[in-house]
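FORM 12-B: Structure-to-Sequence Request
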């Protein structure tokens, strides 16, 4: 006799979405204070930069601002994933592997600077160039080493004609710490907006190019709106070129608010613009959508099934984007997405890297962009002349004319 067991029902879609969101929710990882008093991390004098202290700026060409707690107990200063007791300023170079106590560690060479010295150094570098500054704000799951690696890649890849500043907030650098990262990001809103205001109000800064990745968009957009509101003149902001890579930002909130503040008519008339890189292949943003319940700006997911059905009926891809807003351009990298999560195409996919470089350089379009049925949305399509094996070469190359 064959016993027949009842078929188990398929798990509901909401349950599957919840399971997908678990890694981002951080339910398996909690942050604790640690076994070392935080005051012990910063007790060494190297954690408190003195005015006039010598820094080898040739060896440390890039600038950083951080709210991370430093660890100055060992010869190599590290920036931890804890919240710091204050904002610190410094210089850094691209991280690399080093032997420490017989072990290979990936470390970022850095030195702190007193705030006045740091601003003076930034001014000197800005004056020597074109008055332009590039500010990079990272996203979820980053350490100081990983985000410094990305900042150094941006500097190398774009050949930017001005100083590169990395703003590093205390992301945990862990898959299961999305909720912690989100909490620390919101905790850092005041720190970042005050720094951005100070940068924007420097008379020697002619243009600020802002690049944010992932969760960093939720620091950048409100901070720019704050700078605009508090600027001495309604049209005085020099923040003109804003690039949002894989923005983990509520799409409907963005649509509702952006035209009233960051892309207000007066700002767009003075040449402000936003370029957003989005991908339907972005697994990290799919998980964020499942966690938050609503689509993210960086993922062209069709939340409205009737809109999806209409696109299907017209023979168009089922991809839904933020509405058309003057000053906004959307570049869809779905078809050339790279990596296990598809969350960093602007640093991983050759065609996306090339497009990103041109946007940094102030260009408005590229011939490789394919128009869509929406005037503000463009698609990057696979190019047989640009196979994936060239991604690393192109995305990590030195710009034309650089020999180092």
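FORM 12-B RESPONSE
SEQUENCE OUT:
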């Amino acid at each position: 006799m064959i016993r027949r067991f009842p078929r188990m029902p398929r798990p509901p879609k909401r349950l599957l979405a919840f399971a997908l969101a678990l890694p981002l929710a951080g339910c398996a990882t909690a942050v604790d204070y640690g076994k070392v008093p935080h005051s012990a991390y910063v007790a060494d004098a190297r954690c408190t930069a003195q005015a006039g202290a010598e820094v080898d700026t040739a060896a440390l060409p890039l600038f950083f601002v951080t709210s991370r707690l430093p660890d100055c107990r060992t010869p190599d200063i590290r920036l931890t994933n804890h919240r710091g007791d204050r904002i610190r300023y410094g210089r850094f170079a691209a991280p690399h592997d080093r032997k420490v106590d017989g072990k290979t560690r990936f470390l970022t060479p850095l030195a702190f600077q007193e705030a006045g010295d740091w601003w003076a150094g930034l001014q000197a570098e800005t004056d020597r160039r074109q008055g332009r500054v590039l500010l990079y704000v990272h996203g979820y799951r980053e350490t100081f080493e990983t985000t410094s690696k990305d900042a150094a890649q941006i500097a190398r890849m774009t050949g930017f004609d001005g100083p590169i500043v990395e703003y590093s907030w205390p992301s945990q650098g862990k898959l299961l710490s999305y909720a912690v990262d989100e909490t620390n990001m919101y905790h850092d809103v005041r720190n970042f907006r005050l720094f951005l205001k100070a940068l924007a109000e420097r008379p020697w800064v002619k243009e600020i190019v802002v690049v944010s990745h992932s969760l960093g968009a939720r620091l950048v957009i409100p901070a720019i709106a704050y700078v605009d509101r508090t600027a001495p003149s309604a049209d005085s902001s020099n923040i003109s070129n804003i690039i949002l890579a894989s923005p983990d930002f509520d799409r409907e909130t963005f649509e509702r608010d952006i035209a009233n503040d960051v892309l207000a008519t007066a700002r767009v008339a003075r040449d402000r613009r936003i370029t957003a890189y989005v991908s339907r292949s972005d697994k990290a943003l799919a998980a964020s959508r499942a966690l938050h319940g609503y689509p993210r700006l960086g993922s062209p997911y069709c939340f409205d099934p009737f809109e999806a059905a209409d696109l299907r009926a017209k023979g168009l891809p089922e991809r839904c984007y933020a509405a058309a807003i003057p000053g906004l351009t959307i570049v869809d990298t779905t078809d050339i997405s790279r990596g296990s999560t598809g969350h960093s195409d602007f640093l991983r996919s050759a065609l996306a890297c090339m497009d990103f470089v041109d946007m940094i350089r102030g260009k408005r379009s590229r011939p490789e962009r394919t128009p869509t049925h929406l005037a503000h949305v463009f698609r990057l399509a696979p190019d047989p002349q640009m196979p994936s094996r060239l991604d690393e070469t192109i995305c990590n190359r030195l710009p034309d004319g650089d020999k180092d």
